[in-house]
Amino acid sequence: MIELTIDGRAFHVPPGVSVMDAARANGIDIPHLCYHPELSTPGGCRLCLVEVEGRADPVPSCQLPCAEGMAVRTQSEQLSAMRREIIDLFVSDHPLDCVICDKAGACLLQKYAYEYGVSETSYDKHIARSLYQDDNPFFVRDHQYCILCGRCVRVCEEVVGASAIEIVGRGFDSHVATPFDGPMIDSSCVFCGSCVQVCPTAALMPRSRLGQGREWDLERVETICGYCGVGCQIEYALRDGRILYAQSTPGAPVNGEFLCSKGRYGWDFATHPDRLARPLIRRDVAYRLGLTDEPWELPDESPLDTGEGVIEERFVPVDWDTALHVAADGLARTVQAHGPDAVMGLSSARCTNEENYLFQKFMRAGIGTNNLDHCARL
Fold first, then answer.
1. Torsion (CA) 30, 31, 36, 40 in degrees, nearest 10
2. pLDDT tens figures, 1-50
3. How far apart are CA 117 and CA 120, in angstroms?
4. pLDDT, tens digit (0-9, with 9 covering 90-100), for 172-209
5. pLDDT given for residue 274 in this prediction
6. Which one of 112, 287, 322, 337 has the fewest beta carbons within 10 angstroms of its own beta carbon?
């Protein structure tokens, strides 16, 4: 272990850890825009500069490896002045419409401009990037808010492996683009939304999020994604009970901050009017069990061929204990009357490996049949 001091406090860290990571691991916040803990460190924004004893000039902490006996200072008058100047430069090429911005409350540039008292730029204002691209059903790209931190480019290349975007052009003409600035659908983008997740400003925003309130207006609910058995942690942002967008959370044990396209954008089923909220039993079965007083007979067409209002006519909602009892009783009677090979089991790719193991064990050892299949198609 390496021993160093940060702001007068001594810490022990493993070799190879950067000063930025060591500080964050011990509750010390160093301002940053281009840095992300799960991406490479270009050191481009220069907000994370720190002073190191024995060195003449400040150095970026995201690229500075810890060394034995190193003494680091993250706050000083010199550092504050340098960071204020850097933010001033960013603001000179960035709209200051925070009062109507959907990202207000979750924008890192807004956060640091507030902390360092930069309410307007001291330079000539010039918004170099004005392109607004609304070319896909998942997110919009508003280039006027882009600060060219490169997070989106790096996550697309390093985590997703799609390399769908890159920073092109020079000087004020620099911007994040697909090949030949074509529509996103014509690129290698897989629409996972990881770029939206890591964007520190409002340059990339979920379409479903626009015009739906500020970040502090939204309720947060953490759960586990149900699309497969990986068990990714997911956080839903809600307004008045409606899901606005989904994202992961820092430190999620399985997936980190990243999700696939299904987990990030496939949540509309949660509030779909046709979603089943309770178990249902066919009316003729419910009548035989005494769960309803209305007799009913099977129609000529399949009772599963439902339309508007048909579900209520053909099925009776029950509680889970009743539904499980009916299913177990029917399974047991079938096996007793016709043998274990009269039934089969179909497992689900949305279950965990452990749940699927228990299911096949139940079918083989409990029921006594090898009639078992698995639907791994999502």
1. -80
2. 899 999 999 999 999 999 999 999 999 999 999 999 999 998 899 999 99
3. 9
4. 889 999 998 889 999 999 999 999 999 999 999 999 99
5. 80
6. 337
Helices and strands (H, E) in the chain, number of each type = 10, 17
- Domains of the chain plus CATH, in order, are 2-75 (3.10.20.740), 124-271 (3.30.70.20), 277-338 (no CATH), 342-378 (no CATH)
List of residues 6+ apart from 290 with CB closer than 8 A: none
Long-range contacts of 254-258 (CB under 8 A, 24+ apart): 254/230, 255/230, 256/38, 257/38, 257/197, 257/198, 258/38, 258/155, 258/159, 258/160, 258/192, 258/194, 258/197
Q: Is the pLDDT of residue 125 over 70?
A: yes
Quick check: 240 pLDDT over 80?
Answer: yes
Helix (H) / strand (E) element for 24: namely helix 19-25
Whether residue 378 has pLDDT greater than 50 = no
Measured at the alpha carbon of residue 74, what is the angle toward residues 57 and 146, in degrees to the nearest 5? 85
Contact 219, 239 (CB under 8 A): yes
Q: How confident is the model over 241-260, as pLDDT tens digits?
A: 899 999 998 889 999 999 99
Collapsing DSSP to helix, strand or coil, 292 comes out as: coil
- Quick one: angle between helices 108-115 and 77-91, nearest 10? 130
Q: Distances from the Cα of 11 to the Cαs of 28, 49, 50, 72, 301, in angstroms?
A: 12, 19, 17, 11, 72
Gap between the Cα atoms of 159 and 169, Å rounded:
24
Q: What secondary structure letter does DSSP report for 230? A: S
Asked whether 250 and 257 are in contact (CB, 8 A), the reply is yes
